[in-house]
C-alpha cells in the first residue's frame, strides 16, 4: 500500500504526472499528500511494466527518474531487488496497514535479517542473534547488499542466504511478504482465480518473533492452536485489543520495606509491608523506574524462602 501511514480516499484521489516531471498524489480536497520529487523538461512516460514496476522515464533514452521498486512497503515481487537502501516494513496488523514493528533489511554487517523496532526497545531475531554469521551459512564479506526473488521460486542474497520455494521450477504468481506477525513468507498461486498459499517461510512457530506478546508476558505455540500470549502472574493485559502493549502490574508498586530476590533474570517480590504477595514477577527496569532498593540478591534456587 502506497502512502500507508497517511492513506487517501480511494474514490476521488488522483495520481497525476505534471508537466514539470513531478508525480503528485492529491486527496479529495486536492491536497498534495505525496510526490516523487522529480523534475525534467524532457518528454516523459509513466509506465506500469509487466513485472509490476511503475516507472517514470524519459522517452528519449533510458534514464529512469523514479520507480516504485525503490519504495517497497511489506512486499517484494519477483525481480524486485532488496538493497542497502530499501527494507520491508510489516503492517501493524492484518486490518491496519500502517507501518508496524517488524522490518526485513541488510544490517551494518551485510547480513539480511528480521528485526523488531518496538516502542521502547529494538532487537534482531532472525537469523538467531546468538550464532555467528558463518554458523548459519551467511557471509558478511560481500558489501553489495542485494537480494532478489526469481521468477522460478529461487531466492539469492549477497550474504550467501539462498532458498527455493516448495513449488520451485515453474513460473507462477509469487510475492515475498513480511507479515504482521513478524515472519517473512513467500506466497504462490497459479492465477488470480486461485487463493494464495505459503510456498516458503523463514521459520515456524511465531514465538520466535521478538515483542509479539509485549512486556511482562509469555508466549506459547502449538501447530494446531497457533500462538497464545499470557500475562505473568500478578499482571494483566494492558490493551485488550493489542498484545504488543504487553501486561501491566495489578498491584500498587511502592518500595518501602520491599524485599527482593533476583534470579535467572527475573525478580520475585516476596514481602511488602509484612504482607505476602507471592510469586509476582516484575522486570528489573520497573524496579529502577520506581527507584526501588534491591536487596537480598542471591543465585537461582528452587527453594526460595517465600
Would you give an account of this structure?
- The protein is mainly beta.
- The protein folds into four domains: 71 residues, Agglutinin, subunit A; 140 residues, Agglutinin, subunit A, CATH 2.90.10.10; 36 residues, no CATH class; 56 residues, no CATH class.
- The chain has one helix and 25 strands.
- The N and C termini lie far apart (54 Å).
- The C terminus is likely disordered.
Note the topology:
Elements: E1 14-17, E2 23-26, E3 32-35, E4 44-48, E5 54-58, E6 64-67, E7 75-76, E8 82-83, E9 88-91, E10 99-106, E11 112-117, E12 122-126, E13 146-149, E14 154-157, E15 162-164, E16 173-178, E17 184-189, E18 197-201, E19 217-222, E20 226-231, E21 235-237, E22 247-249, E23 258-263, E24 266-272, E25 280-281, H1 284-289
Antiparallel strand pairs: 1-2, 2-3, 4-5, 5-6, 7-16, 8-13, 9-10, 10-11, 11-12, 13-14, 14-15, 16-17, 17-18, 19-20, 21-22, 23-24, 24-25
